[in-house]
Amino acid sequence: MAELITYREAVARALAQEMERDDTVYLIGEDVAAAGGVFKTTPGLLERFGEQRVRDTPISEEAIIGAVMGAAMNGLRPVAEIMFSDFLATCWDLVANQIAKTRYMTDGQVALPLVIRTANGGGVRFGAQHSQSLENWAMSVPGLKVVAPSTPRDVIALMAASVRDPDPVIFFEHKGLFASRGEVPDGELVGQLGEASVVRSGPDATILALAAMVPKALQAADELAARGIEATVVDLRCLVPLDTRTILSTVADTGRVFTVEENPRLCGWGAEVVSIIAEEAFYDLDSPIVRITTDHIPLPASDILEDATIPSVTRIVDTVTRSLD
Amino acid sequence: MNVAVAAGPDLDTRLRIYRMMLEARRFEERAHQLFLEGLVKGTTHLGIGQEAVAAGFAAAMRSDDLTFCTYRGHNHTLLRGAPAGRLMSELLGRSEGVCGGKGGSMHLTWAPAGAMGSYAIVGAHLPIAAGAAWAAVERGTEQVAVCFFGDGTTNIGAFHEALNLAVVWDLPVVFVCENNLYMEYTPIGSVTAVERPAADRAAAYGLEGVVVDGNDPDVVYETAADALARARDGGGPSLIEAVTYRHGGHSRADPGTYRPDEEVRQWLARDPIPMYRTRLAGAGASEDQLGGVEQSVESWIEVAVEEAKAAPEPSVDSIATEVWADGGSRWRN
Question: Is the minimum CB–CB distance between A76 and chain B shorter than 8 Å?
């Protein structure tokens, strides 16, 4: 049996699955309890698990992240919501200086099994301070695991894996995908961090994508097929750990590589992935690797401007077609 | 504003506190000396002169209570129970160090004794201490988290976020401002809107403004015992401002010359250790008892220093360990 649910419903289902299983799992954040989250990703959890385990906080991102860090040190497996990923900038000391480095700096004395969930990405006309794709910030700091699912099924499976993981995980939920639907099976669903998914197979090109860029890459692949180009599409799902094995294996199969990245160009995840391919699979390549990214600019709010900034299906199709000519 | 008055702990407790203060003093004097010999690297931030706060609290805390302190944290980490030889080894960057040489002077942790870290980014550990206290409530452990910080911390956002959350959630956490009158090189009064950097902010969070003599370990002990008991009984957080003085500068780079000579002289005359010795002698401690403590600490520190000097350098193989819970550092397959 399978059921069609939205990406936002998958968030609540995943948290409920883990909170039901383990009574040390707690959820805190701004408006997560009584209001069910400003993106309605946590409705029903307060009623089901009570006000001790699902708790509203003040608008105090440092206090929220500090609280889950301290709680993880002392026996809980807490989950914090940072409403917009852009707000991570207000508590980045706790994330990057404290949480990421504590196990290492204490030589393994202190473990921090915690998850920071956050609504990430653009496409919803919120402007430059509420739309960024910030996976790369987290990816650049040793000690953080970085997850960014593209489907309701992966939201559940990877949230479960993140909650159960003994290390800190930054879990990016894409705002532009909250209303999207997908099938999920009945019963408990638990995935594995660090496994990319080959969501389409074709011999002519590999398109590497993450989060909201995955459905765009798939749609582009369908249009490319109509032009006689059969592409492989890989959903990376996690940036840390990174499934380089799957990436390199598809590169060997197709010899042509494109990344589709929502982030501004400089130091995007694709730059790291491309450097790995260049070092380890250079002789598998039949043509230069091409990165399709947002330009290196803040994201504009206007629908026309935002749509022209973030990689679109048309841009992917045109770029791949031109490169393969 | 309240100035707590101490009834005074019993003589055994006082002798224990005296020993703790002496241990902290000798430990830091030797750390300083080893720095000058080139064996302690980087920098050090000494708490010489401030031992009464660390000792008074450590003596009053339960063994499973949790301490969070700052880069000026040798004394707190030591007095909660970190083994002195391994603590000194950490300052020397040796493999026997409490953090395997990965922490250093500013980043000391000894989790087995509840010393949950010295935090070197000002303010970060206040919300972390609140979180540890939150977990204590949810797990029903009756632990209290004690968070030490300097006067300069009262002007950073995390201080205010943590106090507010701790009060709203009624958490068993004791916030202790070690007000040594200087924010690094700058007099705290010249950069703070109120006279008492911590206590004058307490009312904003519905807390009592408590100022104590941080050079009087009996006062600190009694104040700590009250705050710990209240927190353990569900009475919520406290904010205590302990006024004290560091005998030296902010760090190794700072000779502290910006401080008026007369001020330094007056505070040196209020050195908590000789003052306490005099008090204990007047309160029934014999010269044999006091001398016995002193002699024992002298040999204790020699053992610790020798252990640290003899400890092996870390293997470079340890560099890539303990990034993740699997013990390693792999970020890809």
Answer: yes
